[in-house]
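Re-run with default settings, no changes from the original entry. Doing this only to confirm the output is reproducible before filing.
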Amino acid sequence: MEHFVWNIDPTLLHLGPLELRWYGLFFVGSFFLGAVILTWVYKREAKDPAVIETLLIYLMIGAVIGSRLAHTLFYEPEFYLSHPLEILYVWKGGLASHGGLLGVFVALYLFAKRYNESYMWIVSRVAIPGALTAAFIRFGNLFNSEILGKPSDAPWAIIFERIDLIPRHPVQLYEAFVYLIILLILVSIYKKVTPAFATKILLGIFLFLVFTARFFIEYTKMRQAAYTTDLAFSTGQLLSIPFILIGMVWIIWALKNKDKIHP
């Protein structure tokens, strides 16, 4: 059986000593499109979208710092604890989505406090473009030929020629397409419910759907952590479980208190 061969150069463009990588393009592009979505949200709810540019800066800084710290602490702790300066070398790669989300939560708290916004309101709305960013990051991983799937004979398996000649599950595409579906679900719910209820329910749905998908897709991934454990779950699955549980509790609480919610 012939399989699709993937061998894209991760560098899109060389600018002297600098280079523009596909991953960076997808990452920044997701924030640009996210700004379009948030502008629509702000205008729909009669809020001034002038703060969105500043909000994006907070989000990008929080996402990068959080994802970098999580990767160094949870996936390769022995290396980075022995070489702490390497933690600063973000351009070498190594970002963990779980930490990126936590970094975003912190960044949104600081933003809400600085600009007198409702934290619950802003975090629930950012969940919508958050699904888009998650999808675009996985497209970036695809162009980097990283976060590889397990070997597979499935007809849709892909050979990542820059790594080896083994057909593998295209887990980057699995996650990216699922996250895009979650984006559509969040937008649909947001348009159908009241703004007050959206404030309470959207983040719970985001957490539950994204990390439930992540948990099950992990079964088709090669283990990413540089260390091994005797546990049946991967590091990515273990880190996803708390978010799944929080999402479940959040949704149940929001539904039970639907009539008590005020703008």
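The chain has one domain: 4-188. The beta strands are 4-6, 11-15, 18-21, 158-160, 167-168.
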